Amino acid sequence: MLKKILLITLCMAWMSQSGLAQQPAAKQPDTTRVEGPAMSSPSGAVSDSILVTIILKHQQNKNLPEIRRVLESQGFWDIFPPQDTRVLSWTIAMGLGHVIILKVPAGAERRLNLALENGAWGAFDTEIYLTYDYKSVWEDYIERREESKEDRN
Predict the structure, then answer these.
(1) How far apart are CA 91 and CA 149, in angstroms?
(2) CA–CA separation, 83 vs 22, rounded Å?
């Protein structure tokens, strides 16, 4: 039940897309990985990629400076996210950690997994979920629901 609630919360957070990652100040932003469109285009064409939600839970036996030392020593900011992925959302959920939604090319899952294993382990507990954009389905449902209310009156 908790995972269902978390997944719903993540979907709502993704729709609002209101946060940024905590990154070291010395790192310059990578302009090749920017926020982009959702999984499918308005024409309905399906792209050759998948959406992945990653949760990096802070290991509570470490404070922030210790976590940053682990990340720097393992080169996390250099290898994550992998070059061929696109960050759609990166938020911090207080008490949970980083919630990241990536658009990953089909077949690039191994590179993503290795980036997490090599860079994040020791600083974060990781959770990875295959996700999809539900917003258009929800909007369509609400519209049809409103139309059916009007028909009943």
Answers:
(1) 37
(2) 19
| 92-139 pLDDT tens trace | 999 899 999 999 999 899 999 999 999 999 999 999 999 988 999 999
pLDDT of residue 98: 96
Q: Which of 102, 111, 114, 119 is nearest to 14 (CA)?
A: 102
Whose tokens are 């100040």? That residue is 25
What is the per-residue DSSP string for 83-135? TT-EEEEEEEETTTEEEEEEEEETT-HHHHHHHHHHHTBTTEEEEEEEE---H
Closest CA to 123 of 51, 73, 88: 73
> Cα–Cα distance between 62 and 98 in angstroms, integer?
15
Q: Which contiguous run of DSSP H or E holds residue 41? A: none
> CATH for 2-17+47-152?
3.30.70.920
pTM, two decimal places = 0.63
Domain chopping of the chain, boundaries: 2-17+47-152
